[in-house]
Amino acid sequence: MKSSTKKVDKTFLFLTTILVLLGVTIFSSASLGLLTSNNAKFQAVTFNQLVFGLLGGTISAFILSRINYQIWRKHAFYIFVISSILMILVFVPGLNFCTKGACRWVSIGHMTFQPAEIFKIAAVMYAAAWFASIKQKASTFKLGTLPFLIFIAISGLLVLSQPDTDTFMVISAAGLAIFITAGGRWRDMIIMGLIGALMLTGLVMVRPYLMQRIQTFIHPSADPTGSGYQIQQSLIAVGSGGLFGRGFGQSIQKFNFLPEPIGDSIFAVAAEEFGFVGSCIIVLLYLIFTLQGFRIAVRAQDLFGTYLVVGIITLIIIQSYLNISAMLAITPLSGTPLLFISHGGTALFFALSSVGIVLNVSKYQKKS
């Protein structure tokens, strides 16, 4: 019944390669905006992205694609515990690195990393291992719904304390995707959705920056030089691209107009340079990447492989589409990266590492 192809899914590998190459191209153009203000920052950012993120991530993906994914099931609990401890380190003075009121980074020597990137993958591994261990009993409250609620509560406690609402939403989405795939009851999901909506409303009420995001989303032009500045400049960039764009490297908005042109706003830069057609191609690439990932999940040789891939693909696509939709004013602004493309060496490293795990699962497929 079970077999190993011993070869990775070439289509998934090809799609990832295209996204990475596209990312390098767009990032190289968007990062030129830094040259007008800070040449030292340009060099540091480029080094971090290309050496740690791209090169390191590629090496990690290659190694992980050769490690049997069953090892993650055996050690999922311990990986989850260790990643949780790393999350706690962001609150330790001397080890943490804080900026703009948020403590989300750990600084050791000259190295700074974001534990949440590790925690997201560890959370998916643990959820996948749990639901695989209970077979197909996710529809029961004792073995399915209750453990899932505890899992979400622990994740929320660790992530929301930083505070990092975006990461919590992404982890919750990945966990929910695994829960649904494992056979969780729709009734329970609806109840949890209502509870989540109430909790999110309460969170918005007590955290002013979240309330400001919502208000800016509803009235984006109310404060064009303040809270609405980023979305206004993003829409100008997207609109300026027209049908086919200004051309590679020709973005105007990346020069002292768009906040974070290499980060949150990088899709706006791409839309300005490649236009509506280019933007649609980017969105379509992510969609095909997702469908191929789910295809690997469906054909995985066991439940753990299926749940693991579903969780990882959901992590990647939710973050990416949240970034794109925010730049188009379809959803409120968020701090989620456009994976494989936007700045963030740690995010790119772990995105590619996750791809390596999926590629290993693709080696072990059910017989046709």
Task: Tell me the layout of helices and strands.
Elements: E1 2-4, H1 10-30, H2 39-64, H3 70-74, H4 76-88, E2 96-99, E3 102-108, E4 111-113, H5 115-133, H6 141-160, H7 165-181, H8 186-206, H9 208-218, H10 229-240, H11 266-298, H12 303-327, H13 345-363, E5 364-366
Antiparallel strand pairs: 1-5, 2-3, 3-4
Describe the structure in your own words.
This protein has 368 residues and is mainly alpha-helical. The chain has one domain. The chain contains 13 helices and five strands. A three-stranded antiparallel β-sheet has the order 2-3-4, with no helix packed on it. A hairpin with a 2-residue loop joins strand 2 and strand 3. It is globular and about 55 Å long.
User: Structural class, from helix and strand content?
Assistant: mainly alpha
Query: How far apart, in Å, are the first and last alpha carbons?
Result: 9 Å
**Rg from alpha-carbon coordinates:** 20 Å
Count of runs of 4 or more consecutive helical residues: 13
Our estimate of the beta-strand percent is: 5-15%
Task: List the helices and strands in order.
Answer: EHHHHEEEHHHHHHHHHE
Total separate domains: 1
> Mean of residue pLDDT?
87
Q: What's the total number of strands?
A: 5
| Spatial order of strands in the largest sheet | 2-3-4
Task: Give the overall form.
Answer: globular
Distinctive features:
two-stranded antiparallel sheet, mainly alpha, 5 strands, three-stranded antiparallel sheet, 13 helices, 368 residues
